[in-house]
Amino acid sequence: MARCYAEDAEFQDPVFHLRGRREIGGMWAMLCDAVRQKGRDVWALEFSIGAADDLRGSAHWEPRYRFSATGRMVHNIIDAEFEFKDGLIQRHRDHFSFWRWSRQALGPIGLVLGWTPVLAGKVKSQAQANLQRYLASHR
After folding, report:
1. Which of 72, 91, 133, 139 is the most exposed place for a label (fewest CB within 10 A)?
2. Going from the N-terminus, what domains does the chain have, and what CATH number goes with each?
């Protein structure tokens, strides 16, 4: 997956804001490893490709998985936008409802606090720390 991104690519969603192929590829590898370790039995993915040309593209995807931190099931609904340069992804933005995701992934805490910047900030910090640990251990 990392090879699909330009060396200086940018990825952004409600949880991650990443720069560079190493960070972006590391995120995908970390998420795939989590599924392999704790959720292979329930992993599913539906997707559709939207419009695309040499410069831009879009996709809709719906992963279903067990969130490794809590063991709770998540069905995320994501709309993705891509910008391409030289045949590679230069910019990738995933849009999804953080509140909807947090209600599923975190349960009652997500239901009550998932719409607040406080919980979003905490989840972002934890995700970034997890990614940095993952990258350090997979050099």
Report:
1. 139
2. 2-137 (3.10.450.50)
What burial letters (b/e) apply to 42-81, b meaning 16+ CB within 10 Å?
A: eeeeeeeeeeeeeeebebebebebbbbeeeeebebebebe
Position 136, amino acid: A
Q: Which residue's entry shows tokens 């972002």? A: 124
**Contact (Cβ atoms closer than 8 angstroms) between residue 88 and residue 4:** yes
Question: Tens digit of pLDDT for each residue in 99-118?
Answer: 999 999 999 999 999 999 99
pTM of the entire predicted model: 0.93
Q: Are 16 and 128 in contact (CB under 8 A)?
A: yes
